Amino acid sequence: MGKRRRNKTIRLAFLSLVVSFLIQHFSFAQTKIFGTVFSNKQEALYAVNIILKDSSNTKTIAYTFSNDSGYYEILTEKIGTFNLTFSALGFENKTISIEIDTTQKEANYPVILLEKPFDLDTVIIEGEIPMSIKKDTINFKAKYYVRGNEETVEQLLKNIPGLNIDNQGTIKIGNQEIEKLMIDGDDLFDKGYKILSKNMPAYPIDEVEIIKNYSNNPLLKDIENSDKVALNLKLNEKSKRIWFGNVEANYGNDNFYHHKLNLMNFGKKNKYYFLTNFNNIGYNATGDIEYLVRPFRTNQPASIGDNQKVRNLIDLRETSLQFEDDRVNFNNAELVSLNAIFNPTKKLKIKFINFLNWNETNFFRNSIDAVDVNGSNFVNTEDYKLRNIQRIAFGKIDMQYNISSTKMLEMTTKYNTGRQYNTSNLLFNGDSTLENLKNNNTLFDQKISYTNRFKDKKVLLLTGRLIYEETPQNYNLNRFFYEELFIDNTSTSNVRQQIANQMLFAGADAHLLDRKDNGNLFELQLSNEFRKDKLRTGFTLYDGETILALPEDYQNRTEYQVNNLSLKGKYQWKFENFSVTGNIRLHQLINRLENNNITTTQTPFFINPSVSMQWKINPKNKIVATYSYNVRNATILDVYDNFVLTGFRSFNRGLNQFNQLDSSSLVLNYQLGNWSDRFFVNTLFFYGKNHDFFSTNTTLNPNFVQSEKILIQDREFFNIDTKFDYFFKFISSNFKVNLAYSQSEFKNSVNNNSLRIVTSKNFQYGFELRSGFSGFFNYHLGTKWIKNTIETTFTNSFTNNVSFLDLIFIINDRLNIQLDSERYFFGNLENENTYYFADFTSNYKIIKDKLTVGITGKNLFNTTKFRNLFISDIGTSVTEFRLLERFVLLKLEYRF
């Protein structure tokens, strides 16, 4: 059976690659003008501007830029006589006359440019063009991508070719998330850039820059291997060095509101950005706050400690619903953020981020859960209402001191405090149940980094970091469902679970990077990481306010201490268009575990190797492959000894022993073209195997579930994902196709029976078509099908679909209208399985660039609930969610 799955995997990967190669030959009766640009020294020239004009040089037909191999390509449907112009920094311009007739499909024009002295910083091209390339920076003139209905930076960025923004606000270049979003070269929010993109108005933006091969540390530029990308927003001149902003008020029926204020001053020396956002319409103005509080990077210089945090054992919040969050987010949110960048001297930069967020959310769900597995056969019903009140205060200070042009000292101090109060009103099988959960979080994080570029291509980084975090939780339940577990305490009326979880982390890292003259890169890194966790849990049975019992197997006093001394060596060999990188990391651990006053120690040693290769076949085809073997140490949530109540009917238990988990993985990536090209294909294949992994032995009962961790061998999973992106010039529209298939296999035990194999399969396919018309009308449409299957002793499956159609009308320079519609289809539901939604927005500029009025309508069909089917390895769940009802907002916006 495993062999057949592997063969199927290989066939799927091979088919995707073949399809990717074949599609590149697809054409629409166009002539391809192509060639390679060289200098008179026979060196390939990068970022040469190539413009196709009519014979009189009065009209631009098409334009492009040469890539890093000097290759260029232009497609045109026109015939006749044209001028092809080449221009580049430090070289003489060259124009050649070409003829195109109806019989030509391709025309090859290699060109040699002669060097000439120059004293200009940039190339000036006659006739401004929307996009330009200079080294690693791609520049887009914002005015060419503005349609007239953009209000925020996020809405503007959706119009930039190659940028993809999902429903959560995550910004990607092609398939890769950006590293940060800057304003005139300065970064305010790091990985929490959604606060900026979702709130800052779009009108001050003059240019959008995409920076490839980006380095967070400027002294590592041209030394480290970086595939990171970042965005830089360049402001127009009238928005620099002055206070400006906008205030917007929206008010509607049933007291719905959305109010916001942006106040900004972006000077060359100092920058200020203050914002507020208040709403109860389900809008998330921050994105995931975790990205702001704990930006996460792996295997990057000075990233020691980024993967360290405390994880909660109890969480009453709902997970993703495969549905737009703002339709189920009954919120009342208040956000205030005060941010500034100061440059007291030429050498010193200080950045302040202050963030206050108060949010009250309500969530409503009804469900029917059917369990039928290994002798357990029952149905539970839940009518669930959750109220969550959250308060977060976050502060961060970044200081950067440039000791000299080759030495830099950086210091980051962060403090976060959070309070959450969760209250749920639950009808479980008709019985009223109340839950109360209090979550507190305190975080202090201090990092210092010193960089010394002691030679032109050699750099040394020294980093130290200290993190302290604690997350106490107090959970109260006014019912007692566990008579079968505690037969001596049947008079219990309520239970309480208390958790104290603390973490102290201290780490130091020395990292040497040496870029050789031949382009090879050598890295040597020595690190020591120390982490100490304290976990205290207490489960108590009450009769009213009287303590009846503290069950012995439900109390934990765990201390887990890990010291990880590691040495990493890495070397990259480059051979023209081919490179190979070898990486090996040696770990010496000292583990100490104390569970309920019993102490054990362990000193494991292990090696994590990896090898990768990159082959640039030609300017349009690239293959990347990586193989790695990894050993991971168990965490505090794996090693505690006794049971913990993690929900009103669920108990979890750790292993009470040390473990290191072995895994290996293989990644293959094929890329046809570049994301900024007219045609782009990316295929990713991933195969992973867990040689050891944690699974569960679960005991199922209608009133409770007990899960104990167990250690199992051999689990496999793979996925293949192919994306096609093509721009149809004749309809000025971008067409995207996404095909994805994943399959995972794991093992678990239910009701103490023998291990069973559970196979999960997911197949997704869909397309999008988005126009780029310069006229009064644009559209965006798409559809996606999702098929999920769970196979074990039985098989469950369903197929869902979501489709959308958005229409944009720019009536004139004052009036615009946008209509959005969605259709959701949920498979395996006999009735109420299709849902429709419609929204609209219209704005009218009373005083251009000053005063705007508008109207917004959401959920026009007033769909107040939807039902969905969820499947698992133990049964099915039909769940009904409550939605925000229809509302209409009137808007008034003033710019100053």
What this model shows, in words?
The chain is mainly β and 896 residues long. Helices cover 5% and strands 62% of the residues. The longest helix has 22 residues, at 2-23. The chain is globular, with a radius of gyration of 30 Å. The termini are far apart. Residues 1-28 and 118-127 have low confidence and may be disordered.
Low-confidence spans: pLDDT under 50, at least 5 residues?
Answer: 1-28, 118-127
Biggest sheet features: 33 strands, mixed
Estimated share of beta-strand residues: over 45%
CA distance, first residue to last residue: 68 Å
Number of helices: 5
Radius of gyration: 30 Å
Counted beta strands: 50
Structural class of the helix and strand makeup? mainly beta
**Whole-number mean pLDDT:** 89
Share of residues in helices = under 10%
Overall shape = globular
Any chance you could write out the topology, listing elements then pairs?
Blueprint: H1 2-23, E1 31-39, E2 49-54, E3 60-65, E4 71-76, E5 80-87, E6 94-100, E7 106-108, E8 111-113, E9 131-134, E10 137-141, H2 153-157, E11 163-165, E12 171-173, E13 176-177, E14 181-183, E15 186-187, H3 194-199, E16 205-211, E17 230-235, E18 244-252, E19 257-266, E20 271-279, H4 290-293, E21 330-342, E22 348-373, E23 376-402, E24 407-428, E25 431-455, E26 458-470, E27 473-477, E28 494-515, E29 521-543, E30 546-549, E31 555-575, E32 578-595, E33 598-602, E34 605-618, E35 621-633, H5 636-639, E36 643-647, E37 650-653, E38 660-672, E39 679-701, E40 704-728, E41 733-750, E42 756-771, E43 777-791, E44 795-810, E45 815-826, E46 834-847, E47 851-858, E48 865-871, E49 875-882, E50 887-895
Parallel strand pairs: 1-7, 1-8, 14-17, 37-40, 39-41
Antiparallel strand pairs: 1-4, 2-3, 2-5, 5-6, 9-10, 10-16, 11-12, 12-13, 14-15, 16-17, 18-19, 18-50, 19-20, 20-21, 21-22, 22-23, 22-49, 23-24, 24-25, 25-26, 25-27, 26-28, 27-28, 28-29, 29-30, 29-31, 31-32, 32-33, 32-34, 34-35, 35-38, 36-37, 38-39, 39-40, 40-41, 41-42, 42-43, 43-44, 44-45, 45-46, ...
